[in-house]
Specification:
single chain, alpha/beta, Rossmann fold, 6-stranded mixed sheet, 4-stranded parallel sheet, 16 helices, 17% strand
Length: 410
């Protein structure tokens, strides 16, 4: 592990400059530096406040429905072989995904700072729905920037955001997906950083956002470790989660960094290896700066972000959270990739075998667990998958493109 101290990891990372090794930081225009310092100082204060922590715990228990369950996918395990697959059921968190974990924390921070509006980007729509929910809970306005391509793909979540009182702002430039939604939201934030708080939807962006989102998502890993041990009397052999920006993955990984478990992040290989056909940043990217932070980035010869694609709207982002980049370089976390077709097969398999319809994002991690099970038929291992969201939002798209799974050997 290259000598990294994982027992004191969260005290040491990030450092005072918001860096995880050489990654992270805050690459900002001068007019935003003061605002980011204000946000960082406010977070440093309230994150140590008993009143804030007590209120957040109450929200998680009485509003979000935490803790979410740990589930042994026994029928799926029997179908695939000796490996035993377990699911951390973040799909049962209120609003249907892990995103509310950090949105409620960011909403509390906005109230503390006296902000009037929450703004954010969204790809799959789960972050948009979660932030619209938080805004309604705290009595704040809410603007959600979303690419026009994703608005069509994720129509149910667009309707939910509007029902919750949010204004959905279509983004019509570039590829009209997640990266452009972030661009649009950053521009809107720079126009008025005083009355509104930009609630970044993953462990990306300038410091302190990667740290804040990680800290709010740590509850997933804390719960999962305790639940798995209570259920089995042991720790999992492998912990895995899908990775776009990387919030759900950092959430569950945090619970196991100091343990003798393998940890696997799973990226979208999409349609293939050509530029524009995937969003496998760790596999094909190199160091670069995007949206105010330094990390791995899919980029062209000039350093501009390359076009990306994934069937999962929440994963089609050309960069990855800086902490993930650090954990890859340290050797603590392995990063692999699965294709669209593998993810869709996992979607149908979990639906048919366990009666759970998963989000296409989560299906990437599930597909990796299925691959591991098939590739080691004589070796029994326990695999914990972070089922980061439910698939209601994806049903229409999957059925339109793939029917009801007739072409898959399930």
């Amino acid at each position: 592990m290259n000598g990294t101290d994982y027992y004191n990891y969260f005290k040491l990372h990030p450092d005072q400059n918001g860096r995880y090794g050489k990654y992270g930081g805050a690459y900002l225009p001068p007019d935003l530096e003061k605002i980011m310092t204000e946000i960082r100082d406010a977070y440093d204060t309230i994150s140590r406040s008993a009143k804030f922590i007590s209120e957040l715990r109450s929200i998680r228990k009485h509003y979000q429905g935490r803790p979410t369950p740990m589930y042994h996918a026994e029928r799926l395990s029997q179908k695939l072989g000796p490996a035993q697959i377990y699911l951390k059921r973040e799909d049962l968190n209120h609003t249907g995904a892990h995103k509310l974990n950090h949105c409620m924390g960011e909403g509390l921070l906005a109230v503390y700072l006296g902000k009037k509006k929450l703004i954010a980007e969204t790809g799959a729509g789960q972050h948009g729905v979660a932030l619209a929910t938080a805004a309604a809970y705290f009595g704040l306005e809410c603007d959600i920037h979303m690419g026009e391509v994703d608005i069509v793909k994720q129509a149910p979540n667009v309707a939910r955001m509007k029902l919750l009182g949010a204004k959905v702002i279509p983004v019509s430039f570039g590829l009209k997906t997640l990266k452009e939604a972030v661009d649009s939201c950053f521009q809107a934030y720079m126009e008025d950083p005083i009355s509104q708080l930009y609630c970044i939807g993953s462990v990306v962006g300038p410091h302190p956002f990667p740290m804040m989102v990680r800290d709010f998502q740590r509850i997933v890993g804390i719960e999962a470790r305790e639940q798995f041990y209570d259920m089995t009397g042991d720790l999992p052999d492998i912990v895995t989660a899908c990775v776009g920006g990387g919030s759900n993955a950092m959430g569950i990984f945090c619970g196991f960094l100091a343990d003798p478990c393998e940890i696997h992040g799973v990226e979208p290989l999409g349609k293939g290896t050509k530029v524009g056909e995937h969003a496998a940043t760790m596999t094909y990217g190199k160091e670069g700066v995007l949206h105010g932070f330094n990390s791995y980035l899919l980029q062209d010869e000039t350093g501009e972000a390359s076009p990306v694609y994934s069937i999962a709207s929440g994963l089609d982002y050309p960069a990855i959270g800086p902490e993930h980049a650090f954990l890859r370089d340290s050797g603590r976390v392995q990063y692999v990739a699965v294709t669209d077709r593998e993810a869709v097969e996992a979607f149908f398999m979990l639906s048919r075998v366990e009666g759970i319809i998963p989000a296409l994002e989560s299906c990437h991690a599930l597909a990796h667990a299925i691959r591991l099970s098939r590739n080691s038929p004589t070796h029994s291992r326990s695999i914990l998958v972070n089922l980061s969201g439910r698939g209601d939002k994806d049903m229409d798209y999957v059925i339109e493109q793939y029917g009801f799974g007739q072409d898959f050997q399930l």
